[in-house]
Amino acid sequence: MAGLVSDRGWVVKAVALFVSPAVAVMAMLFAVVVVLAPLQPSPALSLTASGCLSSDTSSISGVKLDSEQVGVARTIISVGKQLKVSPRGWVIAIATGFQESGLRPLPYGDRDSVGVFQQRSGWGPVATRMDVASAARMFFLGGLHGERGLVSIPRWEQLPLTQAAQAVQVSAYADAYAKWEPLATQTVSRLSGQDGSCTSHGPWVLPTGHTPYVLTAGFGECGGLWAHCHTGQDFAVPTGTPIGAAGDGVVVFAGWSGPYGNLIRILHPGSIATWYGHLSQIRTRVGAQVTAGEVIGLSGETGNATGPHLHLEVRLGASPASEGVPIDPMPWLHAHQVL
Q1: Residues contacting 336, CB < 8 A, separation 6+
Q2: Strand pairing partners for 250?
Q3: d(Cα 271, Cα 338) in Å, to the nearest integer?
Q4: DSSP state of 6
C-alpha cells in the first residue's frame, strides 16, 4: 500500500518490506513512503482552459431528440434567458429534465409529481406544473409555496451539476443527474450557441502556498513487487505547514482514511476533486464551502508515511457518490498556471 521515491525506488521498496528494520530505516532516509491506490482506466475526459470538465461526447453524438424534447429544451433556454440565468443554469435544468421525465411534460409520476421536472403539488397547481415555461420558471426561481429554486442556492454556478440539481429536486437518487450533463451541455450548445459546460472556476493555487517543498513520489510510480501504483504527487514539507484548498469547492470528506491518514477530499465545479493526505490536523468539516487558498489543515505524516509531506491527488469524473479517476497532478497544475 505504499511506494518510495528516488531513482532507487524499486530497491527501497523491496528493502522497506523484506529486510531488517535497521536497514529499512537507512533506506527511508532517501525517500518518503506514500499511499498507493489502484489505478483505474482513464475515461475520455479533458480540462478546458477555465478548469471545467469536458467529456468526450462521442457516446451521445448519435442521440437525436424528437420534436417534443427539442421544444421543451428551447422553452427552458428561453425562460432562462428571460430571467437572466446563465447558460450553466440552462444545462442544469435540461439535465434535470432528462433525468426526471425524459425531457417531456409527463402528466403522471411518483405520487402527485407531474411535468418536466416532476414537481409535486406543493410547487403549484397541476396546470402550472404541466406548462413547460411555468415549470422552468419555478425550477429557476422556486415553487409557489416556498420551494427552493436554483438561483436561490448559494454559489449554485460553482457547484457540480448533480449537487445543484439535487438542491432543487431533493431526489432520492441524488447522484442521478450527473450522467445527463454531457447531453444537456451539447443540447444547449446546439440550440443556443452558448457554452454551458460550467462557469469559470476562479483561481487554482498550490496547496502548500509559499512554503518551499521537494517533489518526492510522483504519479504512477510503481514496481514489480507492488500491487498498486501511486495515484498522486507528494510534496515534502515540514510538519505543520498550512495546507490550502487548491480551488473553490465543497468538502465531501474530512477524517481518517487508513493509509492516507488524516484525509480531506474537496469536490470542485466540473466534477473535479482534490485529495489531501497525511495531514497532522484537519481544520475544516464535511459540507464546508471553501475558497482557493483557504487553510483546510496542516501537513504531517499520519497514516502510511515515514516523513512529513502532502499527498495531493487530482481526480476527474468525481461526484458526491463517486471518488472519480485520478490523473497526474503535475501536468494539471502546470495547465492551470499553478506551477
Answers
A1: 47, 51, 204
A2: 267, 289
A3: 19
A4: S
Residue 181, C-alpha cell as written in the block? 450533463
Q: How many residues does the chain have?
A: 339
Query: Model pTM?
Result: 0.53
Cα atoms found within 13 Å of the Cα of residue 222, Cβ hemisphere only: 15
Residue 32 in contact with residue 4, Cβ under 8 Å? yes
170: Cβ contacts below 8 Å, ≥ 6 apart: none
Q: Which 3 state secondary structure label does DSSP give 177?
A: coil
In tens, the pLDDT along 44-88 reads 333 333 334 443 333 344 568 899 999 999 999 999 999 999 999
Among 87, 311, 254, CA closest to 181: 87
Q: Exposed, middle or buried, 209 (CB in 10 Å: 0-12/13-18/19+)?
A: middle
What are the residues whose beta carbons fall under 8 Å from the beta carbon of 324, sequence distance 6 or more? Answer: 271, 272, 273, 315, 316, 317, 318
